[in-house]
Amino acid sequence: MKVALPLDKHEWHPSMLAGQIVLVSTLDASGRPNVAPKSWVTMVAFAGPILAFGCNVTHATYANVIATNEFVINVLSESLAARAWALSDRHGDQRLHDSGLTPVPASVVAAPLIDECPAHLECELDDVKLYGEEVFVFGRVVAASIDVRCTQGSALDQYGRLAPVFFLEEGTYGGLGPVRHVGR
Ligand SMILES: Cc1cc2nc3c(=O)[nH]c(=O)nc-3n(C[C@H](O)[C@H](O)[C@H](O)COP(=O)(O)O)c2cc1C
Questions:
Q1: Which is it for strands 19-20 and 50-56: parallel, antiparallel or unpaired?
Q2: What's the distance, CA 134 to chain centroid?
Q3: What tens-digit pLDDT sequence spans the chain (184 residues)?
Q4: Cα of 154 to ligand 1 centre, how many Å?
Q5: 144 CB burial (10 A radius; 0-12, 13-18, 19+)
């Protein structure tokens, strides 16, 4: 038996589409760095490659992307999950300062990489699609890098080291669980 859910997404428990938690790093128009957790993130196209993430238009991340045309998607590991929530309790310069996270230079874009994250996708702004107060930001990946340890061993080893983490609903996250081959 299936039960109908209301069309208010806030009322969806459990959340049906888990989103991978990433840290989006940007620079503001004056060159000051910002980092924010986001989980409405997805690949869009092999050609590019193109990815996209959802953001509120009032967020500093969106203002910075519009000001600089760049951003970096930093993949969060499960061991850093609690820090993602701690980040969004603070704002501006204070956030990065208090986070203990380390901004380091990227290879192509001016926005920094977050060193503690195991993988990074440097992006140039491709497009935006507005839905009222929310916006989907599309980026063209211009450089990608990953901790070499995540590239070694079996798929189980590699995903185990990357340890992606997923936002389920407010205050709730989950890891990847066992990695299996389909066997055909
Ligand atoms: C785990 C997690 C996932 C989040 N995902 C999103 C998201 O996908 N989109 C969004 O706009 N805000 C998301 N937020 C909320 C923002 O990170 C938060 O409002 C933050 O203060 C925005 O920072 P900014 O103004 O520097 O961009 C998330 C917060 C957490 C803790």
A1: unpaired
A2: 16
A3: 999 999 999 999 999 999 999 999 999 999 999 999 999 999 999 999 999 999 999 999 999 999 999 999 999 999 999 999 988 888 877 898 889 999 999 999 999 999 999 999 999 999 999 999 999 999 999 999 999 999 999 999 999 999 999 999 888 999 998 888 888 7
A4: 33
A5: middle
Closest CA to 65 of 41, 34, 44, 91: 34
Q: Which residues line ligand 1 (CB under 6 A)?
A: 21, 34, 36-40, 54-56, 59-61, 84-85, 88, 167
Rounded Cα distance between 153 and 39, Å, is 28
In this structure, which amino acid lies at residue 176? L
Nearest to 111 by CA among 101, 119, 120: 120
Ligand 1 nearest atom to the CA of residue 167, by list position: 1
- Ligand 1 centroid to residue 88 C-alpha, Å: 6
In angstroms, the CA 82 to CA 168 distance is 14
